[in-house]
Every structure is written in structure tokens, then in C-alpha cells.
Amino acid sequence: MFRVHPALIIAKSLPVYIAAGIGIVAHQVLSSILL
Fold it and tell me: N or C: which end of the chain has fewer CB within 10 A?
């Protein structure tokens, strides 16, 4: 019986959240600079 460790799921999904956060921050910074 194989169970996926919760930390493994978090570790796999964490880069996605980090990339999304950086993208949102970068978008806000670029918007404030251009406007």
C-alpha cells in the first residue's frame, strides 16, 4: 500500500506558487513603472 507523502505534494507544487507570485509582483512593478 503506497501513500504519497503530503510534503512531497507540497514540494512539487511549491515552485508553481513561487513562479506565480513572482509573475504577479513583476506585473505590478512593470505596471507602476509604465503608468
Answer: N
